[in-house]
Amino acid sequence: MAENHLQNTLALHAGYEFDTQRTISVPIYQNTAFSFENLEQAGNRFALKELGNIYARLTSPTVDVLQRRLAAVEGGEFAVCASSGSAASFYALVNCAQNGDNILFSNKIYGGTNTLIQHTLKRFGISSKEFDIDDLSTLEKSINEKTKAIFFESLSNPQISIADTEKIVQIAKKHGIITICDNTVATAFLHKAFDFGVDVVVHSLSKYVNGQGSALGGVVIERKGLNELIKNNPKYPAFNTPDASYHGLVYADLNLPIFCIRIITEWLRNIGATLSAQNAWILIQGLETLGLRIKKHSSNALEVAKFLESHPDIKEVNYPGLQNNAYYPLLKKYFVSTQASGLISFEAKNEAHARAICNRTKIFEIVANLGDSKSLIIHPASTTHSQLNENELKTAGISPTTVRLSIGLEDAKDLIDDLKQAIEN
Ligand SMILES: *Cc1c(COP(=O)(O)O)cnc(C)c1O
User: Which residues carry this modification: N6-(pyridoxal phosphate)lysine (predicted)?
Assistant: First the structure.
């Protein structure tokens, strides 16, 4: 597969060489362990002198195809999958920071990632501080010598905002800190974070990549040349000093994409939130049509957003694809053809109205998910973000009147009719 092929071609072909049976569908390798040709080969694989399969907690052929394909579509160097997007975010973060370090994170991120960073990582001795994605002067002020990662979403969920990625990257580069961008909502088809200097991209594959709400998965992808930032950078001792858990290996000595390699050798090996071959196969099917679907999600959502904007009972519509949206200039700068995905949020008249709309829709299902081919609706304050306290909700930009839609692939007119009756009923 030539590197210079375009994204739709890569999504269908990259990373798969026919096996002996020449199956056109990527085969599912349903196995736990792999046989070595001899003990010397086994030893070389364990020592990372030869890359190859050992045990399916670390690598497996079906997952490998998906990883290569995701790295190609994203324009990255190397990718490692995990059993969910949450596991991928966790691995990316703990690959940067350890006990005593801190992480800076955007105030507008997925609720689960917010609690992971603020509460779970805290129990591991990793502290964190929020910055305002809409006011990046708050970012640099919080950086100190213990800051090891800056985490944000390119298009955030559910209080939709678009990151000024180049500005974040510029600040991070000045301090030699790794940037991690969650690109789940935008997908690589709308936003190529590596083109704007981001170091690491994470995705929940459970959303648009899957597209049918049928499998969980996550991925961590590193940019080309990330080794240069990590090697000899005193901020990242885990890569630059001998690893006692891996017979004294120094990752920086390897001529491999060390960010992802260490996710395999440290995090998948010892924690084991590995993507299964079955789910990798399901996600491969989704990835093959992602480019086509994300266009339709975006055009449907634009029609729905225009309808909501025109409705007198809707106080505010947040969809970056609307030209009067505050994020439209950033959408234009960072996103392909000003497409803005299927995610819309809006403010109902009051909390009771917001809840009633969710309960009255007939096509939109109340589901705590996004990116499905079917349209979904949710009330974030009482569901996906209910773990956040009042203050955290406020800084995340969510109010009790917020309703979030994930626009699917139905006919836009049917979606508009359904919302109309739910709003007015
Ligand atoms: C869903 C989601 C996650 C978590 O992914 P899972 O696969 O559900 O663990 C992370 N980030 C974003 C933006 C998401 O939408």
Answer: 207
Q: Give the residue from 80, 366, 66 showing the smallest Cα distance to 215.
A: 66
Ligand 1: residues with CB < 6 A are 84-86, 89, 110, 112-113, 153, 157, 182, 184-185, 204, 206-207, 216, 218, 370
Please enumerate in sequence order all residues whose Cβ is within 8 A of that of 295, keeping only pairs 6 or more positions apart, or say none.
Answer: 189, 339
pLDDT tens, residue by residue, 132-150: 999 999 999 999 999 999 9
Average pLDDT over the chain reads 95
Domain boundaries, the chain: 7-278, 291-424
**Residue having the nearest C-alpha atom to atom 8 of ligand 1:** 85
- Is the pLDDT at 376 greater than 90, yes or no? yes
Q: What residue's CA is closest to ligand 1, atom 6?
A: 85
What's the CA-to-centroid distance between 415 and ligand 1, angstroms?
25
Query: pLDDT tens digit string along 201-257?
Result: 999 999 999 999 999 999 999 999 999 999 999 999 999 999 998 889 999 999 999
The CATH code for residues 7-278 is 3.40.640.10
Residue 12 pLDDT > 80, yes or no?
A: yes
CB neighbour burial string for 89-127, b if at least 16 within 10 angstroms, e if fewer: bbbbbbbbbeeebbbbbbbbbbbbbbbbbbeebeeeebb
82 Cα to the center of ligand 1, angstroms: 12
Q: Diameter of the chain by CA atoms? A: 73
Q: What's the gap in Å between 134 CA and the centre of ligand 1?
A: 22
Q: How far is the CA of 93 from the centre of ligand 1 (A)?
A: 14
For 279, residues 6+ apart whose C-beta sits below 8 A from its C-beta are 83, 215, 216, 217
C-alpha of residue 183 to centroid of ligand 1, in Å: 10
Ligand 1 atom with minimal separation from the 217 CA: 7
Task: Give the pLDDT confidence score for residue 225 in this predicted structure.
Answer: 98
Residue percentage of the chain with pLDDT more than 90: 89
Checking if the pLDDT of 60 tops 90, the result is: yes
